[in-house]
C-alpha cells in the first residue's frame, strides 16, 4: 500500500493529466502511519506493561532524519548548479526540513503547496513534518488513553479526527472556495484526521499483528475482504478522478480516501487473515515482490522525486509528461534504493553516530538489523564482506565516500548561505507593485490572497445601452482583474490607458473573480470592458466563465486573457481551451486577448519560469489587450438593442 501511495503522488506531480488525484496518496500514507505507530505502541504496552517514549522517539529519529539530510545535501547543490532561483527561501526551507516543522514554516511565510509557477525545492517535506509532530505528541496522548476502559479508547482519536475534518472545512471557506487551502492542507491540526483514523483502527483491533491470537471465521473474513477490495478500489479510483482544485475535495473526498484506506488496512489485520479468505487474497496481491520492494523504499522515493522534478522542469520545461514521469521515477527509485542500502538502514539499526564512525574504519560495520513491527522479511540483510576484497580497496572506497559526503555537505552549506530570499520573478512582481502604486482603492479586500496591485479612479456608472457600440477604449471604461502575469504588466496598462482599474494579485485563481466583480459593481467601478486574466493558477471550468458572463450583464463585454506556459503547466492549456469555447459560445460578448501567441513569438522576453514577462516584454500583454479592445468595439449592434 505504501508503494501505491508513492506511485500516486509521483504521478500527480510528474503526470497530472493522468493521475490528477494522486495527491491523495499522502492521505493513504497518513492512515498507514497512524495505524502502524499505534499498533506498535499497543504491542509494547501489552508486552512490557509500559511505553519507553525516549526509545520510541529515538527510533523515529533514526528512521526519518538520515534520509532527509541525504536528500537535502544532494539536491540543494544540484539546484544551485542549474539555477539559483531554485534556492529561493532555501534558508527557511532547510530549517523547516531539518527540524520537521516545514509545514508551519511554509504556512507562516505564505507559501502555497499548490503553487506550481514557482515551486519550492523542498515543498514535499511538509508531510514529514506532520508525521514527526504526530510521533512526538501521540505517545503522550496514548499514555493518557490507558486510564480509559479499553472499549472506549478508540473513540478518542475518532473524535480528534472529526475535529480535524471540521477545521479543514472551516479553513477552506466552509465549502465556498479555496482561499485558505494551503493553511488547511498543510496544517497539522487540519490534516491529521488520516493519522487519527488509522490510530483509532489500531486501538479497536485486538492484536492486529498476531494471527495466532485469532480463530478462522470464513464468512466474516470474506466480508472483510470484500470491504477491503472495495476500499482499495475506491482509493485507486480517487487517484484518477479527484481534482485538486475541486472544493469538495477538502475535506470530503479526502475523508472518503481516508476511510477507504482504513477499510483496506482493516481487512489485512490478523483477525481477518486467519484461514483462507478473500481478505487473504487481497493481502497476497499487495505482497507481490515488486510492490513490497517499492513499498519498503517508498519513503525515499517520496523524498527524492519532488526536488528532482523541480530541477528537471527548470532544465526541460517542455518535456512531455510521459518522459518526465519515466525519467524522474527511474532516478528517484535509484536514489532511494542507494540511500536505503547505504545510509538509511545502517543508521536506523546501527545508530547514526555509530554508522558515521564505521565509515571511517576499515571493514567495520554497524550493528546488525533488529526486527520490529516495521521490518519486512528479506528486505535488509547486511552482507558480509567478500574475503577476496583487499582491505585497501575497502578503505579507498570508504575514503571516497566520506570525501563525497563532506563535499556535498560543504556545497549545500554554501548554497544555503548565498540563497536569495526571492526569485527573479518575485522581485519583478514587487517592483511592478511599487510602480503601480497610486490612488489605491480596493473594494475586494475580503478576497485578499497575497500581494496585490489595485489601481482605480472615481466610480464610473455603467454606460447606457445606446452608448455601448461606440464605447471608447479609455481607462474610464476598463476594469482589469488578473493574476501575477497581469500584475507585472499593470504599469504598462496604466500608461497606455490611464485611469484603468487594475486589480492583479499573485497566485490568484478563478475562484474569487465573481466576488471581485460583485465588489467592483457595488463600488460603481465594473466598467464596460471587463478584462479577466487568471489562466495560470488552475484550469478554469466552463461553468465559472458562464457565471462571469451572467454577472457582467448583457451590456458589458468580457475580455478573457489566455495563458502562456510550458508543458509542465497543463492547467494553462486547459484554461486556454475553456476560454476558446467561451468565445465560441458567446460570440457577441466574449473576446479573447491572445497573450499566448505574442509570448510564444518572443520567448526571449519571458522569465526563466517560462510564464511571466520580463519588464521589457510587458508591451506584449498590452498589445494583446489593445487587439481585443478593437475586436470588442466591432461587436454587432444587436448587443445594445
Query: Helix/strand-derived class?
Result: mainly alpha
Number of β-strand runs: 6
Overall geometric form: globular
H/I helix tally: 26
User: What's the end-to-end separation, in Å?
Assistant: 63 Å
The averaged pLDDT comes out at: 85
How would you characterize the largest beta sheet? 6 strands, mixed
% residues in beta strands: under 5%
Show unreliable segments: 362-386, 438-451, 456-469
Helix content: 55-70%
Provide the gyration radius in Å. 28 Å
Instruction: Give, in spatial order, the strands making up the sheet with the most strands.
Output: 1-3-2-4-5-6
Description:
With about 650 residues, this protein is mainly alpha-helical. Helix content is about 55%, strand content about 5%. The chain has 26 helices and six strands. It has helices at about 1-15, 25-50, 55-80, 90-100, 100-110, 125-145, 150-155, 155-170, 180-185, 195-205, 220-240, 250-265, 280-285, 290-295, 300-315, 320-350, 350-360, 390-420, 425-435, 485, 490-495, 515-520, 540-550, 570-585, 595-600, 620-635; strands spanning about 450-455, 480, 500-505, 530-535, 555-560, 590-595. Strands 1-3-2-4-5-6 form a six-stranded mixed sheet, sandwiched between helices. Helix 15 packs across helix 16 (about 320-350). The chain is globular and about 85 Å long. The N and C termini lie far apart (about 65 Å).
Amino acid at each position: 500500500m505504501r508503494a501505491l501511495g508513492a506511485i500516486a503522488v509521483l504521478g500527480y506531480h510528474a503526470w497530472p493529466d493522468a493521475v490528477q488525484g494522486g495527491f491523495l496518496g499522502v492521505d493513504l500514507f497518513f492512515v498507514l502511519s497512524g495505524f502502524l505507530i499505534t499498533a506498535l505502541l499497543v504491542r509494547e504496552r501489552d508486552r512490557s506493561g509500559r511505553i519507553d517514549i525516549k526509545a520510541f522517539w529515538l527510533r523515529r529519529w533514526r528512521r526519518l532524519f538520515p534520509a532527509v539530510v541525504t536528500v537535502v545535501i544532494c539536491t540543494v547543490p544540484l539546484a544551485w548548479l542549474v539555477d539559483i532561483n531554485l534556492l529561493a527561501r532555501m534558508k527557511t526551507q532547510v530549517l523547516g526540513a531539518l527540524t520537521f516543522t516545514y509545514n508551519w514554516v511554509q504556512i507562516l511565510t505564505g507559501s502555497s503547496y499548490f503553487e506550481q509557477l514557482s515551486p519550492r525545492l523542498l515543498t514535499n517535506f511538509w508531510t514529514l513534518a506532520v508525521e514527526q509532530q504526530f510521533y512526538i505528541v501521540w505517545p503522550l496522548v496514548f499514555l493518557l488513553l490507558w486510564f480509559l476502559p479499553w472499549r472506549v479508547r478508540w473513540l478518542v482519536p475518532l473524535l480528534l479526527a472529526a475535529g480535524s475534518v471540521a477545521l479543514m472545512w472551516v479553513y477552506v471557506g466552509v465549502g465556498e472556495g479555496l482561499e485558505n487551502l494551503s493553511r488547511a492542507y498543510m496544517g497539522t491540526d487540519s490534516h491529521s484526521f488520516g493519522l487519527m483514523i488509522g490510530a483509532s483502527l489500531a486501538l479497536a483491533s485486538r492484536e492486529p499483528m498476531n494471527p495466532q491470537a485469532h480463530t478462522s471465521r470464513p464468512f466474516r473474513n470474506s466480508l472483510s475482504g470484500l470491504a477491503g477490495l472495495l476500499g482499495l478500489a475506491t482509493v485507486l479510483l480517487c487517484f484518477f478522478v479527484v481534482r485538486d482544485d475541486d472544493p469538495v475535495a477538502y475535506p470530503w473526498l479526502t475523508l472518503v480516501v481516508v476511510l477507504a484506506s482504513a477499510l483496506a488496512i482493516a481487512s489485512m489485520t490478523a483477525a481477518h487473515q486467519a484461514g483462507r479468505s478473500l481478505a487473504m487474497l487481497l493481502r497476497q496481491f499487495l505482497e507481490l515482490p515488486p510492490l513490497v520492494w517499492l513499498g519498503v523504499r517508498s519513503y525515499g522515493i517520496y523524498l527524492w522525486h519532488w526536488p528532482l522534478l523541480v530541477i528537471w522542469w527548470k532544465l526541460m520545461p517542455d518535456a512531455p509528461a510521459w518522459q518526465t514521469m519515466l525519467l524522474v521515477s527511474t532516478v528517484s527509485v535509484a536514489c532511494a534504493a542507494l540511500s536505503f542500502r547505504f545510509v538509511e538502514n545502517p543508521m536506523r539499526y546501527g545508530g547514526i553516530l555509530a554508522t558515521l564512525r564505521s565509515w571511517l574504519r576499515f571493514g567495520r560495520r554497524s550493528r546488525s538489523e533488529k526486527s520490529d513491527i516495521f521490518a519486512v522479511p528479506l528486505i535488509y540483510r547486511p552482507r558480509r564482506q567478500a574475503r577476496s576484497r583487499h582491505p585497501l580497496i575497502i578503505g579507498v572506497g570508504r575514503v571516497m565516500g566520506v570525501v563525497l559526503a563532506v563535499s556535498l555537505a560543504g556545497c549545500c552549506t554554501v548554497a544555503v548561505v548565498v540563497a536569495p530570499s526571492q526569485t527573479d520573478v518575485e522581485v519583478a512582481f514587487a517592483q511592478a507593485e511599487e510602480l503601480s502604486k497610486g490612488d489605491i482603492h480596493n473594494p475586494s479586500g475580503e478576497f485578499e490572497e497575497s500581494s496585490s496591485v489595485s489601481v482605480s479612479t472615481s466610480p464610473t456608472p455603467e454606460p447606457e445601452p445606446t452608448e455601448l457600440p461606440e464605447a471608447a477604449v479609455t481607462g474610464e471604461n476598463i476594469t482589469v482583474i488578473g493574476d501575477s502575469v497581469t500584475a507585472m504588466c499593470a504599469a504598462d496598462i496604466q500608461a497606455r490607458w490611464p485611469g484603468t482599474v487594475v486589480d492583479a494579485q499573485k497566485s490568484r485563481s478563478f475562484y474569487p473573480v465573481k466576488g471581485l466583480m460583485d465588489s467592483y459593481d457595488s463600488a460603481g467601478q465594473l466598467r464596460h470592458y471587463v478584462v479577466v486574466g487568471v489562466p495560470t493558477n488552475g484550469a478554469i471550468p466552463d461553468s465559472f466563465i458562464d457565471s462571469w458572463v451572467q454577472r457582467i450583464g448583457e451590456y458589458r463585454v468580457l475580455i478573457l486573457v489566455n495563458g502562456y506556459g510550458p508543458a509542465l503547466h497543463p492547467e494553462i492549456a486547459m484554461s486556454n481551451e475553456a476560454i476558446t469555447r467561451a468565445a465560441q459560445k458567446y460570440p457577441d460578448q466574449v473576446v479573447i486577448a491572445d497573450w499566448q501567441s505574442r509570448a510564444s513569438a518572443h520567448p526571449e522576453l519571458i522569465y526563466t519560469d517560462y510564464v511571466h514577462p520580463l519588464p521589457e516584454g510587458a508591451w506584449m500583454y498590452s498589445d494583446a489587450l489593445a487587439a481585443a479592445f478593437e475586436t470588442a468595439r466591432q461587436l454587432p449592434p444587436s448587443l445594445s438593442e
